[in-house]
Design a protein that fits this description.
- By secondary structure, the protein is of the alpha/beta class.
- The chain contains 11 helices and 18 strands.
Length: 381
């Protein structure tokens, strides 16, 4: 890169690389800070990406093809006392409700796309630029150094993730169960619509998680088969198991001016912005975490693209516009997922019957259900 970068992105994960590609497409010079690659280990994560995220990544030629992105044609959500909500892509007249994307495949697509983009320079250390965007994830050291408060509400739960193989084909159906212990058991389809592999995301009590992780493969197979009510027949563990504590969090500031030590006399103040998990995290029960992060990248790139020609990419007005646009949507999703988690975490008195009655009622309200589904898909109409 002959000229100095205009934007320095700290963090080369999915959100950071997506933002770099979006800015480079607008001829913005980007320095992407990518730390040395860690030792490779099996990655059992899979993300549910909505139509908006798919369109965004496809526009960057970073969408994984073939069985690395499995369309969800049906989704069934069961409560703990007979409540059920069903969603159908056919009824929405769309190709899929979401796509379950294999994380390593998506990351490889993004790495390849960045490699062939001359506007992006991958660096090992942060460099000076008019705008620094922090995409380092929920444990961001840069955010902490900037003095940004990151209000964390911890759930008494851990998420357990793994890959399973089912006795029967999933046929592109995702299943989710809420039980009377407040646990959420989700199975997401992998390997194409006729595949038999599933991504497990199981939110369990933090005291129960160690026991599940310590079980033998045979014991774990029995546990997941029971929890799934044999919806896909017997289930078999085909990967390592991973676990992490669950929390919702949001930063009190998403934008600002870098400390005086990072400024240059006689030049416009250098600014910063947060995006992705560095700015917010939500409970995974709705599968919206990465969709929110990618929407951050799209919104920040859009305000930079649409700026007046004489404004710097780090103009505080642009950044405040970005923050206003994103905070509202993120807060709404955070409150919605938290409300669902809280609703199913209590089983006192008539509450279980009421919430399951509500699920059945929601399933029958076509207009409301249609609107909620379109919102989750990232479609505003």
């Amino acid at each position: 890169m002959a000229l100095p970068p205009e934007v320095c992105i700290r963090g080369a994960g999915i959100v950071g690389r997506t933002l770099a590609l979006l800015l480079a497409r607008e001829r913005v010079r980007v320095a992407l800070v990518a730390p040395p690659a860690a030792a490779e280990r099996e990655d059992v994560r899979a993300y549910a990406l909505n139509a908006a995220s798919r369109e965004l990544l496809a526009s960057l030629r970073a969408w994984p093809e073939g069985i690395s992105a499995t369309p969800v044609r049906e989704m069934v959500v069961d409560g703990d006392e007979g409540g059920r909500v069903q969603f159908s892509a056919a009824r929405q007249k769309v190709e899929a409700l979401a796509w379950i994307v294999d994380v390593p495949a998506l990351e490889k697509q993004l790495v390849d796309a960045v490699r062939f983009q001359p506007q992006i320079e991958v660096v090992s250390e942060p460099v000076a630029a008019p705008l620094t965007v922090v995409c380092e994830g929920k444990a961001s050291a840069t955010r902490e150094a900037l003095g940004v408060s990151y209000a964390v509400t911890r759930y008494p739960q851990h998420a357990i993730a793994a890959r399973l193989e089912a006795e029967q084909s999933h046929d592109g159906t995702a299943r989710q169960w809420f039980n009377d212990k407040g646990e959420v058991f989700a199975l997401l389809p992998l390997d194409g619509v006729h595949g038999r592999r599933l991504a497990l995301v199981w939110s369990v009590d933090q005291l129960r998680a160690p026991a599940l992780l310590a079980q033998s493969a045979e014991e774990f197979n029995a546990a997941v088969t029971e929890a799934s009510h044999q919806a896909f027949g017997a289930l078999r563990l085909v990967s390592e198991r991973a676990a992490w504590p669950l929390a919702r969090a949001i930063a009190d500031r998403w934008t600002g001016t870098l400390p005086a030590t990072e400024q240059t006399a006689g030049q416009a103040p250098r600014t910063w912005a947060l995006a992705g998990d560095a700015a917010h995290t939500v409970h995974p029960l709705a599968g919206q975490g990465l969709n929110l992060g990618l929407a951050d990248a799209a919104a920040l790139a859009a305000v930079i693209k649409e700026r007046d020609y004489w404004r710097s990419v780090g103009d505080p007005r642009l950044l405040r516009r970005y923050e206003r646009a994103r905070r509202t949507e993120v807060l709404q999703m955070s409150l919605a997922t938290d409300g669902l988690q809280q609703l199913f975490s209590h089983s006192l008195g008539p509450l279980p019957a009421l919430r399951n009655w509500g699920m059945r009622g929601f399933d029958r309200t076509r207009l409301v259900k249609h609107w909620v589904t379109r919102q989750a898909m990232g479609l505003k109409t």
